[in-house]
Amino acid sequence: MSMIVTGWWAWSRRVRALTLKEFQQIRRDPSSYLIAGLLPLLLLFIFGHAVSLDLRSVAIAVVVEQATPEANSLLESFRNSPFFHVQVSRHRADVQEDLVAGRAKGIIVIPADFAARVARGEEAPVQLLLDGSEPNTAGLVAFYASGVFYSWLEQQAPKSPGLFARLRGVPGITVVSRVWYNADTRSSNCLIPGSLAVIMSMIGTLLTALVVAREWERGTIEALMAMPVGKAEFLLGKLIPYFLLGMGAMAIASTAAVCVFRVPFRGSPAMLATVSAAFLFSMLSLGLLISTVTRNQFAASQTAIIATFLPAFDLSGFVFELDSTPLPIQCISWILPARHFVSALQTMFLVGDVPAVLIPATLALIAIGCVPLACLIAITRMRLE
Amino acid sequence: MADASLAHVQDVSRWFSGALRPAIDNLSMHIEPGRVTGLVGPDAAGKTTLMRLLAALLLPTSGTITVCGHPTTGDVSPIRNVVSYMPQRFGLYEDLSVAQNLNLYADLSGVVGEERREALNRLLEFTRLAPFTNRLAGRLSGGMKQKLGLACALVRRPLLLLLDEPSAGVDPISRRELWSMVYDLTAQGIGVVWSTSYLDEAERCAQVLLINDGQALYDGPPAELTARAQGRTYLVATLGTERRQILARGLRQPGVVDGVIQGSNIRLVMASGAAPDAAVLGTSAANIVATAPRFEDAFIDLLGGSSALESPFASLPRSAAASTVVIEAIDLTKRFGSFVAADSIRFTIARGEIYGLLGPNGAGKSTTFRMISGMLRPTSGRAFVAGKDLYRGGGTARRLLGYMAQKFSLYGDLSVRQNLRFFGGIYGLARGQLTAAVMQMTEIFGLGAYLDRTTRELPIGYKQRLALACAVIHSPHVLFLDEPTSGVDPITRREFWAHINALAEQGVTVMVTTHFMDEAEYCDRIGLVYGGRIIAEGSPDALKEIARSHPTDQPTLEEAFITLVNRSGDGADAA
């Protein structure tokens, strides 16, 4: 008879054996470390460069109907603006087509009697045509275009004070705005920490979504269940390896955010690790639950992406401000781990360790994670039923 | 508990949701230590469900199961500690090495220290896997996987060992070795349950439970069942060329329970009191000799016989084909990386001939098959079907072919009628022809009652009929059959071969791959495929002749196979 160990020691030995097995499989299966290592970097790169709320070099057309010195001087102002890439034309008809086709995001018409209009102090000396089908861009173009126009006026003021003072109205209180935490209002400083949360939502879930389904598909779960393996050992054997892998992925992605995308990090690594651990716990539990329910790798990966990536993108406050959404949507957003993680990450990157934000977020993440875990414990059977 | 039985199954039924009948239907049995109990029956008979019930992986809907004194409905841990279970596909982690698999199972069983070293060494020696400890389990041959699966189940010494289809898809040599290992275990007092759909394996068990449709048909020693057919089995010698007609005539004779082709002989099982009639068969009485019954004869008898199967194809007009050589393979070779799946395969098949590629899973049958039928580009060599190289543009030639793939490749979501119309359509039947052809197939294969049923819901026997119907709906001259009868019961298999025999008589050329030895007996010629090569070729009788050591010897095709593999020098590699 072989010597059979029992009790706590045998229990921990089984957990260790299952964890080791999972690591051995990860090592042989490129998809696991591609998901954990390469995918976060790839997504971060896409988000970091593609998702930007800043206006830079937007194509516009400036129609100069008559090349008066004033008109040329205003044109130069537009040309010198970093926000615009200017195409010049004589006739509106030449560029209207570009606006319709989306090649130009706006048309600024400097009329032939521009100087005279300005002199008369008319309300609209220049005309701005915008593409209303992209309202956000249109708004930004309008905002920056009027900015260019008013600074041009200011430059002109010393030359002929009488003329331009009327137009500018009564100079009185000037608003000087100051943006805290993101002084140069680079949207990427805010978007990259947010996208880390979105990326890790998907990756955390995807890592575990495949693993139970894989055991079902390959028929190995049957052999495992016929061994003296309990529910706790089985689940821990699945959670521990992917928790470590997920933390590794988070470390890689955060490092890339700071070193490659030059996002400031003002919190502490320990705090980042703590909040990330709470977040991963909730995402890995959800992934395991999906895997256990679907028993099929394809269905599990589809479900994992739809259940995490899309809500995280739309409802986490990563791009779309949640304060302006209807109340029911705001309520839904509170049960999303990504929402808490987005605000925690933005706080740690841009502000620092603010306990008033981070402690509630961590607790919320743990609480949310307990729901799929409880379901998982309830539906996991060491039988094929 | 007073008696020594390891497991008691009492009036057990098991239903699955959505099923029309129970998977296990009011079944009772018991399992004794120190011997092999065979769970024998066709696929989908309920063998795996019963195995899982015994392993406490499934619970009975009604009835009780007690394993080693513990009811399976209670706490499973005492059962898990004494029962080892090897599921189908052996339960191995294919992306782990041999040693990693063994260590995992040792850890999970809590076998440690000196005991563990001893157990692992003993098992590696027992299974002769010691030279392969670092090889990935997925890279092992079928036979080696099977042994590793067994070793994993034996890391701790169980009281009861459950083996679910351990011999499926494993070559005959490994199968034989596994049996001798299992006899070693029973000699040590371990109770073994071995499930199989190979009826010839039943004779190796001490006790057999024969199940069909979830019901126990027989429970007892196999010899007792075989004895029931005593004096009712006959061999009819033929010239070989006329054997298909003689079989067809034989099956028409009243009193014939079963008839199969065995090489150039016809094997007939008669109802009690009946005897074969030479005049009806169209042969002389001297050709008919009594023979010893086999387990399978008694099994078919128990199921009510397979006679009165006559294929309507027999009454159709003969198709015309031009040449005599219809299929030709010239040094076909296929390499996948460094792995040679097929190595210089060469054969020719004449019109109206049934040619079989016989060999275990992974031997290269399907690769060869796919190269011939134009689905896979050969690394070197060429293949011609009806004079055309199908890979390099034989578009119109494909209409002359019928192809029945493994697992049938039907559209599960379509109805039977839609499948027939679809396959008829892609083989180029015009609208008017199509309707007539669908009607004809419906009649021939008895699909009328199922025409508008969703294919997925069909019983497996009907799926198989439909798959054949879809392959022949356009009256092909050449028929390719890839493992056509795996997963169907012996009666359905006989019916299938009645159709194939009739088609061959009509002049249709048939190429078939199989790993069933009894199926190979129907072939006119067999190519034995092993390790990517054809190691022998000839009629079933010619191959058996090679394995004959005494003039009185009657070796089976399986014995011939083993002899030929050993002679080809690859025997050691297979083990």
Describe this structure in words.
The complex is a heterodimer of chains A (385) and B (575). Helices cover 68% and strands 6% of the residues of chain A. A 4-stranded mixed sheet of chain A has the order 2-1-3-4, with helices on both faces. Chain A starts with 6 loop residues before the first helix and ends in a 6-residue tail after the last helix. Chain B folds into 3 domains: 220 residues, P-loop containing nucleotide triphosphate hydrolases (Rossmann fold, 3-Layer(aba) Sandwich); 80 residues, Alpha-Beta Plaits (2-Layer Sandwich), CATH 3.30.70; 255 residues, P-loop containing nucleotide triphosphate hydrolases (Rossmann fold, 3-Layer(aba) Sandwich). Chain B is built from 19 helices and 23 strands. The longest helix of chain B has 16 residues. The C terminus of chain B is likely disordered. Classes of the chains: A mainly alpha (385), B alpha/beta (575). At the A-B interface, helix 1 and helix 10 of A face helix 2, strand 6, helix 3 and helix 4 of B.
CATH topology of the largest domain in chain B: Rossmann fold
Can you summarize the main beta sheet of chain A?
4 strands, mixed
CATH superfamily of the largest domain in chain B: P-loop containing nucleotide triphosphate hydrolases
Biggest sheet strand line-up of chain B:
6-7-8-3-9-10
Helix content of chain B: 25-40%
Number of strands of chain B: 23
Q: Give average pLDDT of chain B, whole number.
A: 87
Cα shape of chain A: elongated
Q: What structural class do helix, strand and pairing data of chain B support?
A: alpha/beta
Mean pLDDT of chain A: 84
Overall tally of domains of chain A:
2
What does the overall shape of chain B look like? globular
Strand content of chain A: 5-15%
**Largest interface pair:** A-B, 34 and 45 residues
**CATH architecture verdict of the largest domain in chain B:** 3-Layer(aba) Sandwich
